[in-house]
């Protein structure tokens, strides 16, 4: 898959038409707005989201890849992902966020489908997603489960007291061992 290729997709509700393409540096302010609007990320997490985004935009495919969802030329969602060093074809989904004003329109699903297709095209086989156990992340965990991700591990107290790390994975290609 050509990560630079754009495509137009329609959300599951039929209400939101978006174009998926590689984001540009001038989308950075909108990335910040979207991440902050979710209301679940601490300021240090927002800074890391921007750092990963900057890396993906400055040198696509070196450490990180990115895809943006655009509606009328405005970024409404994005995802960043990349290969995990010292693994055989394992990739991380680092960030995915959609403007909360349009949650439920299928944009997150389209972003994930794009990421998975791009990962497969690059020879990837396994996607790992890390998220929080907090109650306000319940919809996020449900989103991953609906997309076929399986909960593999929980690390108590990981992010903060009372906030566990929850790890999900999805095998994109059948393993050699069945």
What distance separates the N and C termini? 26 Å
Give the overall average pLDDT. 91
Number of helices: 4
Strand content: 25-35%
CATH class of one domain: Alpha Beta
Summarize it.
By secondary structure, this protein is α+β, with helices and mostly antiparallel strands.
Structure description:
The chain is globular. A hairpin with a 6-residue loop joins strand 1 and strand 2. The chain is of the alpha+beta class and 178 residues long. 28% of the residues lie in helices and 35% in strands. It is built from four helices and eight strands; from the N terminus they run ββααβββαβαββ. Mean pLDDT is 91; it is low at 1-5 and 7-15.
Task: List strands and helices in order, with pairings.
Elements: E1 7-10, E2 17-21, H1 28-37, H2 43-58, E3 65-71, E4 74-83, E5 90-98, H3 107-121, E6 126-132, H4 138-146, E7 150-160, E8 163-171
Parallel strand pairs: 5-6
Antiparallel strand pairs: 1-2, 2-3, 3-4, 4-5, 6-8, 7-8
